[in-house]
Design a protein that fits this description.
The chain is 43% helix and 21% strand. The chain has ten helices and eight strands. The radius of gyration is 20 Å and the shape is globular. The structure holds S-adenosylmethionine (SAM). S-adenosylmethionine binds at residues 2, 4, 9, 16, 57-59, 62-63, 87-89, 92, 112-114, 130-132, 194.
């Protein structure tokens, strides 16, 4: 168990898919097509020449679903893809396999990502990680840069990292406690989420800096959640999650927090909420 339930991942998926920058995903697919062997010919030949994507912290396979949807809209060459889904949560991996093993070439790998040097990256052209890198530490990114730099000595490699929280949340209608709650939430986002002190809202800047310093090309795009009354269930769950995360913060008064949450829930069906994220596409060679 990882603390990420199938229900929660289901609830956020539509907002995630709307938020992901489509052009960046197209570029990631184009990278894959350009850096995998030509896939014309028989089914056996296609499979032999298939590209491999390793999805870190794959959950139930949301990134696979997002890529499949975008690939259907692409008129460029679409390589066959072997998906290697890596997660420490067997229940999530089993759900991913249940949904996709009949329709996709899929390997589920139960592994703690902290063991970065032993990540199953062999033979991959693209590594993906969605809603993950704001949970990791600076040391994790440093080590990942080293590992991918080593991979790139063998063959070109790319990293698509989507939906990293950027520290901004804007509510409408606003409430007097919004700013205090957001500051407390962003403090919580930088506590240990299983990888040591988390980067939280600093993740995007840190990843860009470190990969660029190591000679990688980095392209970014904003990918905010844009929520309205149609997302009321997600907005309520988000409000509860935030309230729970900040309830022990020294700057937050418990009664005022309850009033804030009640206000957020009362307005979930008619208000709006925008949560800032960033997507990154990092490649070992310019193209
Ligand atoms: C916010 S969820 C995102 C899941 C999926 N990428 C998505 O976009 O729906 C974070 C995922 O990272 C996984 N995870 C967190 N810490 C991990 C670790 N140390 N090792 C392996 N997986 C981990 C969780 O099990 C969960 O599936």
């Amino acid at each position: 168990m990882s603390g990420f339930s199938i229900d929660w991942l289901n609830l956020r998926e539509a907002a995630d898919h709307r938020a992901r920058d489509a052009a960046l995903m197209m570029k990631a697919l184009a990278w894959l097509a350009a850096h995998s062997a030509e896939a014309d010919g028989s089914d056996a030949r296609k499979q032999q020449n298939a590209a491999t994507i390793v999805d870190l912290g794959a959950g139930t396979g949301s990134t696979l679903r997002a890529f499949s949807a975008i690939a259907n809209k692409s008129d460029g060459r679409r390589p066959e893809i072997n998906w290697r889904l890596v997660d420490q949560d067997v229940a999530l991996l089993a759900e991913a396999a249940r949904r996709h093993s009949q329709t996709h070439s899929l390997q589920a790998v139960e592994q703690d990502l902290s063991d970065i040097k032993n990540l199953p990256l062999a033979g991959s052209q693209l590594i993906t990680a969605s809603a993950l890198f704001d949970l990791v530490s600076a040391a994790f990114i440093d080590e990942l840069v080293t590992v991918l730099h080593t991979c790139a000595q063998q063959s070109p490699i790319a990293l698509y990292s989507a939906l990293n929280y950027d520290g901004t949340t804007k509510w409408s209608p606003d409430h007097p406690l919004d700013e205090l709650v957001l500051a407390a939430f962003n403090r919580d986002q930088q506590t240990d989420k299983g990888f040591g002190k988390a980067l939280g809202p600093r993740a995007n800047t840190y990843i860009q800096e470190k990969f660029a310093e190591a000679g990688f090309q980095v392209i970014t795009a904003d990918s905010p959640w844009q929520l309205n009354g149609d997302d009321a269930e997600l907005v309520c769950a988000l409000g509860e999650g935030i309230a729970n995360a900040v309830k022990n913060d020294a700057e937050i008064d418990a009664d005022e927090l309850q009033q804030w949450l009640a206000f957020r829930q009362a307005n979930a069906g008619s208000g709006r909420c925008s949560v800032g994220h960033m997507d990154l596409l990092i490649t070992s060679v310019s193209w």
